[in-house]
Specification:
Radius of gyration: 17 Å
CATH superfamily: Gcn5-related N-acetyltransferase (GNAT)
Number of strands: 10
Shape: globular
Largest sheet: 5 strands, antiparallel
Distance between the termini: 18 Å
Number of helices: 5
CATH architecture: 3-Layer(aba) Sandwich
Strand order of the largest sheet: 1-2-4-5-6
CATH topology: Aminopeptidase
Helix content: 25-40%
């Protein structure tokens, strides 16, 4: 099964949204349940990097969520607000094939985020458990609808640690299917731990696995 990549048109769309160009200043994806809007997906844009109190709180929130969920990331380290802001600038806003959405209630309260990166669904975090039960499920379904209908993407992948059973159940509820596993080995640096893929010619024993999952839109 060959993994997909985002084409130039998709990258162009991401860029116009993140840079707030071509009428995309107020872009968002509505999230519905039983035909009632319950939330929306709000893209992180260059405006979120401006120096103001609201954006300071956003960076603080992203940093808090990153540290609370670090064991589910391929690279584990202690995130800082300065590092989070740099990551948002370099790896989200100024990366052509990536977009990240905050998941917010209709009243503008953030309770999670999710995005798209290099042909994959990416960066799922439910930051608050006390808001809108089922909200992340409906949000992912809304993002998938946008991916298939507006971006004209036929297939989407994601990677999740095989031991993250809760996340795997969540993705299956939204239509993803398990495709194959990737064996991983742990490497330790000075201030971080990385889970790296074991290549075909490598004799290292797997210490953990990614489950690669996919969802297709049959046109």
């Amino acid at each position: 099964m060959e993994k997909v990549t985002f084409n130039e048109e998709v990258k162009k769309t991401f860029k116009s949204i993140k840079k707030a160009e071509n009428g995309k200043e107020d872009f968002f994806i509505p999230v519905y349940h039983h035909n009632q809007q319950i939330a929306f997906l709000k893209p992180l844009t260059k405006n979120n990097l401006m120096d103001n109190p609201t954006n300071h709180e956003l960076i603080k929130l992203l940093t808090k969520w990153r540290n609370a969920n670090s064991k589910w990331y391929p690279t584990v380290f202690e995130a800082t607000e300065e590092g989070t802001k740099k990551w948002l600038n370099d790896q989200v806003i100024n990366t052509d094939d990536r977009i990240l959405f905050m998941v917010e209630t209709v009243n503008g309260i953030s309770f999670g985020h999710m995005g798209l990166y290099r042909g994959e669904a990416d960066n799922f975090i439910r930051g608050r458990q006390d808001i809108l039960a089922g909200g992340m499920t409906y949000a992912l379904r809304a993002m998938l609808k946008w991916v298939f209908n507006d971006l004209n993407i036929d297939e989407l992948f994601l990677r999740v640690f095989l031991d993250n059973e809760k996340a795997i159940s969540f993705y299956k509820r939204c239509g993803f299917k398990e495709a194959y596993k990737i064996p991983l080995k742990k490497t330790k640096g000075k201030n971080e731990i990385k889970w790296e893929e074991i290549t075909e010619n490598n004799t290292d024993k797997a210490e953990r696995y990614f489950s690669v999952m996919y969802i297709s839109c049959k046109r």
